[in-house]
Amino acid sequence: MNKDTNTYSAAGEVGSVLESRSTFTRLKIELNKAPLTAKFGIFIIIVFVGLAIFAPLIAPYGEAEVFPEPYAPWSANHIFGTDQIGRDIFSRLIFGARNTVGVAFATTILAFLIGGALGLAAAINRSYLDLFLSRTVDVLMAIPQLIFALVLLSIFGSTIINLIIIIAVLDSTRVFRLTRAVSLNVVVMDYVEVAKLRGENISWVMRKEILPNILPPLIAEFGLRFCFVFLSIAALSFLGVGIQPPTADWGSMVRENASLIQFAQYDLKAAMTPLLPAAAIALLTVAVNFVVDWFLHKTSGIKDEK
Amino acid sequence: MKNKKDNTTLLQIKDLKIEGFSDERWHKIIKGVNLELKRGEVLGLIGESGAGKSTLGLAAMGYTQPGCRITGGQINFDGVDLTKRTDSEKRKYWGNRMTYVAQSAAASFNPAHRLINQTTESTIRAGLKKQNEAFDEARALYDALNLPNPETIGERYPHQVSGGQLQRIMTAMAMSPNPDLIVFDEPTTALDVTTQVEVLAAMRDIVKTYGTAAIYITHDLSVVAQMADRIKVLRYGEEVEEAMTRKMLKSPKEDYTKSLWSVRSIQKPEKKSKDIILEVKNVDAFYGSFHVLKNINIKLPLGRTVALVGESGSGKSTVARVITGLLEPKIGSVKFKNRELPPSLKGRTKDQLQKIQMIYQMADVAMNPKQTVYDIISRPASFFAGLTGANLRKRVIELLEQIDLDESFIDRYPSELSGGQKQRICIARALAANPEVVICDEVTSALDQIVQEGILKLLGRLQKDLNLSYIFITHDIATVKAISDEVVVMNEGEVVEQGLKSEIFSPPHPEYTELLLSSVPEMDPDWLTDLLKARNY
Fold first, then answer.
1. Domain total in chain B
2. Chain B partners of A5 at a C-beta cutoff of 8 Å?
């Protein structure tokens, strides 16, 4: 290289230097670009979370407060009427958000802790441990989940703790499979080999090298899993082995007032009462799915053709 | 098919501007380039990565990748301005009058269809030929491209042929509709030198025979010298200069072009050394039942560089895996400072791990994309030397300065670095452990020529300053000349030849070394012709 052209310096080399932005501004840009469905989903989720957190402040009456008139019609005092023993439906809907969503959230987190940790360990090990875990998961997945949960709940009793643990364990099988599959793509990367050559222990490799790189699909799965867990709990409550009375819960509220639907030809409003908790379940599920879809689209790296 | 060559202009690009969208902004990729191509002419486009070669090559077909847009200029193909045509109109040209040969043939074929169906797909779909006719012509093309068993090779699936064969079949696919224009986008970059020669020869012949105009995109000057009639040099989306191949090679005008030309000329005088720091002794290794290494003996002198040379599949990288302990040898051992190392990674002490570090070919995947430069470099320093807090930060900055970068890089993520900078960070990470032996596995082969030179110079300087010993794995002979003291030639898991650089590169050579050395393209446009003559093709 002669003198005139010797302007090359490593630091001056053009890289694709991104403008440095704080996480907050990046988030703001992303949110502005988000499709309407995602914005709607985020809005609904925020409203539901707000209801769950501030339930005692928002609800006009207590969770298990009984009024003299059962099956009261919709009125100014009881916006959505009262149920079979005279509890305010509107208040119970709000408390239901806290119970159902809270239990579903705790269950999903537990499922991810179990499934995620075992999935990562299996992917790194790729040997006997992997074989053992994968076949165990296959066995668990071969049994229909709802029936399995019903059996286990009737054996161990339907307390909230049992409910959370049983559904979390059953659901962690799906999380295990996903985590293991996406980790396998990362485990073969050179930087994981670098860490192994350095003599790092398995926990470091899991937490620092692999986990950050498989987070996007896991977060998307978290959203979907949350919906399924939420629906499972509602279904179990509807069958009577889920969240037990007097705790308000959307699933059991549907069941308790289900008979009202027969009166649709006489009183349309009363007939809609059992549909309200069902609608709440549907709304939240749809909202979460909107957000997850948007997130998946973002992380899949598909560029919109313009 | 008749020869289409005459002296009329086929493609004319005028003042073309293309922008790409990233990080919330439109960036200029091509900043007003003119290009003219006559029928039957081959134009070489060269430049570093990011110069806009591929974008321009695709634009010649009127196509832009998703996220890119044409903002100005004209692309006149046979009198039609492609910038003004809709996609459905352009589709009548694509795969028919203009075709494309991609870099990675393996990734471009559909694994579920037979090769001959893929070769003739666009021809038949466009209604140019009947199936029988197209198949017959495809077989004729296979024959012309020197493929083995041209009558039956088309019945195979992509995984049943080698990479070099696949690349030639892709050329056949591009030739099948008898197009006016073929765009070759780095078609031989992923191939070994010995395979590359065959593919280049086949592609050149077929383009000449049918008089097809071609745009040949590459970053390898010596390759473009064999292929192109004219060469255009690009940088930062602008034309640097353009001239006929011979003229360009003999007397490049611009300084930038000259600098590209001179990169291959660095040479290092070899030095001997008596002290052996690392020794691979009688090693036999297996992948399952596959015998990858057969009785390998390699000695690494202290403070020197031993280059391991060979094609892919020759076992070079496996030697590195045995030395680092990732693969246990069946027989034999690795000695470090005259003491045997435990065969597997788990048996080695922290101290032993620290002394041997490795640098990888693809800096992209050798760094965790979610860690900053500081995380990446500081971890070995804190892990091995136990540095913390301000001392650790000081050490990281010191390391960054050693590799000609500075403190401003400390918070960047790998995606915010250029290829050369990434490789430098990987070097810094290796240095952070205070190693005595560094294994460099094809560290420069993914980089542009100018950047390669910078990295090689850096490695040379670090060797002098820190008295490091390198095992340098490469398939590039120019790199070997630039960095090594001793050379080990490997083929099919065996050491063919081993000795000082001067001994290896001066004749007489064993047969394989001869083949390897003669296959390295030279900057002489007659090199390929002469070589083929000598080999009696």
1. 2
2. 255-256, 258-259
